[in-house]
Design a protein that fits this description.
The complex is a heterodimer of chains A (about 450) and B (about 675). In chain A, about 45% of the residues lie in helices and about 10% in strands. Chain A contains 18 helices and eight strands. About 5% of the residues of chain A have low confidence. Chain B is of the alpha/beta class. Chain B folds into four domains: about 170 residues, Rossmann fold; about 120 residues, no CATH class; about 80 residues, no CATH class; about 110 residues, no CATH class. Chain B contains 26 helices and 14 strands. A five-stranded parallel β-sheet of chain B has the order 2-5-6-1-7, sandwiched between helices. Chain B has a three-stranded antiparallel β-sheet with strand order 12-14-13. Classes of the chains: A alpha/beta (about 450), B alpha/beta (about 675). Chains A and B meet through helix 4, helix 13, helix 16 and helix 17 of A and strand 1, helix 3, strand 4, helix 5 and helix 6 of B. Chain B: It holds the Pfam family WHD_ORC.
């Protein structure tokens, strides 16, 4: 090897900062070397949380290559991306040279090429990084191939595309150098995580125990890696493989795990006994689920799970929803049988067992109706059913229509399909119950109204 | 008709030739005075209402403000802090909270408060644009420019949906927080909401964003709709901001107790509260209903001039007195006087306006004072009930229910409700009676009873004190535990005898005092609880007309149209299509003189779900008969009528069968 790719101290600093990524950094150094020729396009790929963006960023910063990084995920449209690219390149150039005002609209990829040509004319090497370009919203189909060929028009420009899982030949170009950021293996994950062990004691233990910070430091560097390994073996290797979620799970479980130590039931080095004692933690998979409600971490013992706050619908809205459910899941041809007052006797007979309801299962296998998707109904039908099932008379006023509008606003009733369904005045428009109105939900509604819904559902 | 769904009515500009009556006449003459009276009467109530409603939200707002402040302090959170407001199905109550919050927060310099809703935009670009515009135009109104590009001070041009604009604005003004309130999360497209939260999440390290998401159903249903990335970047906390039943009761309470001129009657209250529970959950409708009741009382009833506290005899036109003599309760009063042989008084009342004026003023003021005195008693009843509730099996009634009972005159001291309550007091243990005293002593009992109450309380308290010193318990002889039934057989007959447990002298004294106390309460209730209907001129003080409320707040548009078409005579009132029965209750029948659309609609009602148009036309022509019109004219009438039915949404073209139309609307739904 002739000239070293990078000065040694720089290499050392990077590998120190990003452990277990030596291969990738070396490759990056060889392809994006400040001193040698660079390829015009470079693709960096790898799964989530493998340090792609951060390593590229800190590498470029360390090597003082002139560069601009565009975060594609923040760009709302394709044009947004192009505008930001121009702005970022201009800004990065303006930092060292005279800040000239640069105005220019950039509405298409061709315009981008022109702008970049003008900006980078006669300049030295420049690296343009598109971070997560595969996540770009509303990207024109030619965006990726066009970006890959930027270097053909602009000398000294290197385009770096950071993507997660590139499909084969996604750039429509052969011979594009790729750097693969592999996901961290078990020892790698553990090694990285062990660099910052979490505290066992949040509050300083009482003074009489003569437990100083130094011992605490020793204990936690001893206990934390073992704990992390246990988490990896139980949960991490199957479902939390990527580093971020693995770290989150470890952090979530750590406080409950060391709670007996803090209480004083176990010593800090009783790892195996502690694992046996706390094995429930490693079996409970609910920690893996994300929730929009942050768990309440009070200083008290355990986070109390409050019953979910759910407000009841008004009285008539409940009936309306039940009627809508029946209209959605009962075929219209049975309406006369189930909802006409005069046929009440027939309905009652159902439990008694007729010739057809006898022991033998039917030859045809049918999916239970309540498991199928809801079918459409007209508003008049649901109002008629509402009148039929209500235990008292209903004076239809504008309030009922308000309820329908409210339920539609809550997406519990949905206007569905058909021509002109967007027009609220369309006569005979079709409706459906929303996806959240399932059998169980309606059953609980009916129970709260003391209404025996099972009598009215066609089996 | 086919292509126009609505029309713009453009009236011609010149006035009709006939002179309009601008000056009010007759009973209407006092209208201006009554309007002023209404404004003063309702104004005070409205102020109290608003205050109470403000208090309702105060708790929620305090919690939310603390949340926002905490989020400011957390300098590097792992996700967007989000307050998830559980509002109940009627979202409007939460907008009250958000309104109030935004008013308070926008006064602060360090925080921007933005509100968006589903109607703000249908795509991410529009939403972000709206957010940025709302945030940045707060202090210096940027013109609404359609230009997509906004220039910045640094010379870089940015698109107007670029959050960089917001980030620059925030760093320029050194704002600590950008709070974004999302109105109706259910109405949002799930993907759009997820996208919005995600893209706000990317910027969270540069802009301190806090989300306030209103949820009408439940937080878990919101979570199901969001994408995983959106879920991971929100750090939510749940807040319940919907007013509870108890709070609604509190608002009702202020209204009831604080009015001193007119009171809503039992029937009206019943209607209003029933609608509240059956259809509505938000409380905003309640003040409106009562306001409307006041308005219709003062505006429509000329006799309300007598309610104005400082009205002079000379101010009232004489025809108002004639009207007052027609009031039912006045007639009853006269009948009562005649029965008592006070004929001359009746003559005076009928002949002299000034005598009538004096009587009316006197009686109205009397009823007002009695009602004013009754409200605290209802409240006391409610409070005592609440106190006893934990210790006995008394059924609880809401204050509004008690009010309704009292206004309808059914809450007398004989009512089972009060009976059982007094019984419970007589049986009660010393510690419970202490609570009851506490409730009673807070100024509910009026003066003649106050001094007696103080004596009884002092005596009982002394007894309790003595018993406590000697470590003994006091028992009431009326308590079931202290008496046993004994059966003895005397001459083959079973004799039941109640055997009192042996009670000490002090217990007996205690029992006696408790009886005194309950007698005192009973006396007090008897004296205070009145039946307003028994008073003359109660129609003026107690407003209890249901129909104006009903017609205004619960109209029936569909039924009105159906009735107009099925029985056009009801609206037209013409001689030609009067129903057969001379007294007007005969069946409405088809006749050629009715409007063509009405004829066709009645034929339509008789048909099935698919209507053969040719048959329909024949039936239509048969009804029209030969009224001297040519067939072409009849066909034209038919076509227009059918087009009108289609426009009203009764029929619709169908592809199921040729030459048919589909029936879309059924009558009576």
């Amino acid at each position: 090897m002739g000239i070293p790719l990078l000065p040694d101290e720089l290499m050392l600093m990077l590998t120190e900062q990003w452990p277990c990524r030596e291969t990738q950094i070396t490759r990056l150094a060889s392809l994006l070397s400040p001193t040698r020729n660079n390829p015009s396009i470079l693709t960096i790929y790898g799964p989530r949380a493998t340090g792609k963006s951060d390593i590229v960023r800190s590498y470029l910063k360390a090597t003082t290559l002139r560069h601009a990084i565009v975060r594609c995920r923040e760009c709302v449209t394709g044009r947004h991306l192009l505008e930001r690219t121009v702005a970022a390149v201009h800004q990065s150039l303006a930092e060292e040279e005279d800040a000239q005002e640069y105005n220019g609209r950039c509405e298409s990829i061709s315009a981008l090429v022109v702008h970049l040509q003008r900006l980078l004319e006669g300049k030295k090497k420049f690296v343009l990084v598109f971070d997560r370009v595969d996540k770009q919203r509303d990207a024109p189909p030619t965006l990726l191939p066009a970006l890959a060929r930027l270097g053909e028009f602009i000398p000294n420009l290197t385009t770096v595309l950071i993507v997660q899982h590139p499909p084969p030949r996604f750039l429509h170009q052969a011979g594009v150098p790729h750097i693969h950021f592999t996901s961290y293996t078990r020892p790698q994950s553990l090694a990285i995580l062990s660099r910052n062990p979490a505290d066992i004691f949040v509050d300083a233990p009482p003074a009489e125990l003569e437990y100083d910070d130094e011992t605490h430091q020793e204990d936690k560097t001893w206990l934390w890696p073992r704990f992390c390994a246990a988490v990896w073996d139980s949960l991490g290797q199957n479902v939390a493989r990527d580093f971020v979620s693995f770290r989150d799970v470890c952090n979530k479980l750590w406080r409950p795990f060391v709670a007996p130590i803090v209480k004083g039931d176990f010593g800090t080095r009783d790892f195996s006994r502690l694992v046996v004692n706390q094995r429930k933690l490693f079996q409970d998979e609910s920690v893996l689920l994300d929730s929009i409600i942050a768990p309440v971490t009070t200083s008290a013992d355990t986070p109390t799970s409050k019953p979910a706050i759910q407000h009841e619908l008004p009285y008539h809205a409940k009936w309306l929803l039940i009627a809508a459910y029946l209209a959605s899941f009962n075929p219209p041809r049975f309406d006369a049988l189930y909802f006409m007052k005069s046929t009440e006797r027939k309905r009652r007979k159902k439990g008694g067992g007729t010739a057809r309801s006898g022991g033998r299962p039917s030859q045809k296998r049918t999916v239970p109706r309540h498991l199928l998707a809801p079918s459409q109904f007209t508003l008049d039908r649901v109002l008629a059913i509402l009148h039929a099932i209500l235990p008292h008379d209903l004076r239809t006023t504008i309030d009922i229509y308000t309820q329908i509008a409210t339920l539609a606003g809550l997406k519990l009733l949905i206007r569905s399909g058909g021509i002109g369904s967007a027009d609220p005045l369309e006569p005979g428009s079709k409706w459906k119950v929303g996806t959240s109105v399932r059998w169980e939900y309606v059953q609980s509604l009916a129970r709260s109204l003391k209404f025996d819904i099972a009598d009215y559902v066609v089996e | 008709m086919e292509y126009e769904k609505c029309y713009v009515y453009e009236p011609e500009d010149h006035r009709p030739a006939k002179r309009r009556k601008v000056e009010p006449q007759g009973l209407h003459g006092s209208w201006n005075v009554r309007r002023e009276a209404y404004e003063t009467a309702w104004g005070t109530q409205e102020a109290q209402f608003n205050e109470k409603l403000g208090d309702l939200n105060a708790n929620a707002i305090y919690k939310l403000t603390t949340f926002l402040d905490e989020a400011t302090r957390d300098s590097n959170p792992s996700g967007i802090p989000a307050a998830i407001l559980s509002t109940g199905p009627e979202g409007s109550s939460s907008t009250g909270v958000i309104d109030q919050l935004s008013r308070e927060q926008n006064a602060q310099k360090r925080r921007v408060f933005i509100r968006i809703s589903a109607s703000t935009g249908t795509n991410l670009k529009a939403l972000l644009k709206a957010i940025i515009q709302k945030a940045t135009s707060r202090q210096d109104g940027i013109d609404d420019e359609d230009e997509e590009v906004t220039t910045q001070k640094r010379g870089v041009k940015l698109l107007n949906y670029d959050l960089q604009l917001l980030a620059d604005y925030v760093s320029e003004r050194q704002l600590e927080q950008v709070a974004i309130a999302v109105g109706d999360t259910e109405a949002f497209d799930s993907d759009l909401l997820s996208d919005l939260i995600e893209s706000l999440g990317y910027w969270h390290d540069r802009i301190h964003i806090v989300l306030l998401l209103s949820v009408a159903t439940s937080a878990s249903s919101l979570q199901q709709r969001l994408s995983r990335a959106a879920v991971t970047c929100t750090k939510g906390q749940l807040f319940d901001v919907a007013p509870s039943d108890a709070q609604i009761e509190g608002v009702v309470e202020t209204v009831i107790t604080d009015s001193s001129i007119t009171w809503p009657g039992a029937d009206l209250m019943n209607l209003v509260l029933e609608r509240q529970s059956d259809y509505i959950q938000s409380i905003d409708g309640l003040p409106l209903s009562l306001k409307y009741a006041h308005m219709s009382h003062y505006y429509a009833n000329a006799l309300t001039v007598f309610l104005i506290p400082d009205i002079k005899f000379a101010d009232i036109p004489s025809d108002h007195f004639d009207a007052l003599r027609n009031v039912d309760s006045f007639r009853q009063h006269c009948r009562h006087l005649l029965d008592n042989g006070q004929g001359s008084q009746v003559r005076d009342l009928l002949e002299s306006n000034s005598v009538l004026f004096t009587l009316a003023r006197h009686k109205i003021r009397e009823l007002q004072t009695r009602l004013d005195g009754m409200m605290p008693v209802i409240n006391l009843l409610y409070q005592i009930q609440g106190t006893l509730q934990g210790y006995s099996t008394l059924p609880t009634r809401y204050l509004s229910k008690l009010y309704k009972l009292a206004m309808s005159g059914r809450l007398t001291s004989d009512a089972s409700l009060i009976r059982s309550m007094l019984l419970a007091i007589r049986k009660s243990q010393p510690e419970i009676i202490g609570f009851v005293f506490l409730v009673c002593s807070t100024g509910f009992i009026r003066d003649p009873y106050m001094s007696r109450f103080v004596t009884v309380r002092r005596d009982i308290n002394r007894l309790i004190g003595q018993a406590a010193e000697e470590n003994q318990e006091l028992h009431s002889a009326d308590h079931v535990q202290n008496s046993t039934l004994r059966t003895t057989i005397v001459a083959q007959k079973v004799e039941l005898s109640k055997q009192k447990a042996t009670l000490s002298k002090r217990d007996e004294a205690y029992t006696k005092l408790l009886r005194q106390f309950s007698d005192l309460l009973e006396e007090y209730f008897t004296a205070s609880l009145i039946d307003p209907k028994a008073f003359p001129f109660h129609e003026l003080v107690v407003y209890d007309l249901r129909s104006p409320y009903r017609e205004t707040f619960t109209p029936r548009p569909r039924q009105a149209i159906e009735r107009a078409l099925a029985a056009p005579h009801d609206y037209l009132d013409c001689d030609c299509c009067a129903p057969d029965g001379a007294d007007g209750n005969g069946e409405a029948t088809l006749s050629a003189s009715q409007p063509a659309t009405a004829v066709l609609y009645q034929l339509y009602l008789e048909s099935g779900s698919l209507i053969n148009v040719s048959d329909l036309r024949q039936a239509f022509l048969a009804v029209l008969g030969d009224e001297g019109r040519s067939e072409d004219e009849n066909i034209a009438l038919f076509q227009r009528a059918l087009a009108e039915l289609k426009c009203l949404g009764f029929v619709k073209g169908t592809r199921k069968r040729v030459g048919h139309v589909a029936k879309v609307a059924w009558r009576g739904l």
